[in-house]
Specification:
The protein is of the alpha/beta class. Helices cover 33% and strands 19% of the residues. The chain has helices at 30-49, 108-121, 138-150, 164-174; strands at residues 2-5, 24-27, 76-81, 86-91, 102-105, 127-132, 156-158. The longest helix is centred in the first third of the chain and has 20 residues, at 30-49.
Length: 178
């Protein structure tokens, strides 16, 4: 609090001179220091709690090439990200072998399809190929990558181009322009 001291300055005494009063101003800084420490504490807590969280995506090094054995089509689940928050997938066959295309929504349905197909093949042999289409959104891609992390599937690939056979398959069976 700010105080103004008004004592001891003058006035008429017996035989004395008239003096002007001297005002002494003293500002108490305690509340201001308290406020400063509160603000510092708030900003320290706010910055540590608001760290952005993101998913790590491991990408292979382009300079290293390894010889690997070819992956059998019977171990592969190919997922096509479609419009209206739907995913279309084929399992166990290539697009030119006239496979059955199944459509699922993201979330529980999608997770169940992943787990069921992984169980059929076996965890280490199972491979998921993710292929977004022109109608899919960025949110769809993030949802699929989240499901891959939730189901703890390690072997998946993100491919940005569809083959002519896959485009034809999607156009004929799902009525989706890829």
């Amino acid at each position: 609090m700010a105080e103004i001291s008004t004592g001891g300055g003058g006035g008429k005494h017996d035989g004395g001179k008239v003096r002007s009063k001297k005002a002494s101003t003293r500002v108490d800084m305690t509340p201001m220091v308290d406020l400063g420490f509160l603000l510092i504490t708030f900003f320290i807590l706010a910055t540590t709690l608001s760290k952005p969280s993101s998913m790590t995506l491991n990408v292979p090094d382009k300079t290293k090439t390894e010889e690997t054995e070819p992956i059998k089509a019977s171990n592969v689940m190919t997922i096509f990200l479609g419009k209206d928050n739907k995913a279309h997938y084929i399992f166990g066959k290539a697009a030119n072998e006239d496979p059955e295309v199944k459509t699922v929504g993201y979330g529980y349905e999608f997770r169940q399809a992943l787990q069921e197909n992984a169980r059929k093949v076996g965890g280490e042999k199972f491979v998921v190929v993710i292929k977004p289409t022109k109608q899919s959104t960025y949110k769809n891609m993030v949802d699929v990558l989240d499901e891959m992390a939730i189901t703890k599937l390690k072997r998946y690939a993100l491919v940005d181009a569809l083959t002519p056979d896959e485009k034809k398959l999607l156009k004929d069976k799902v009525k989706l322009d890829a």
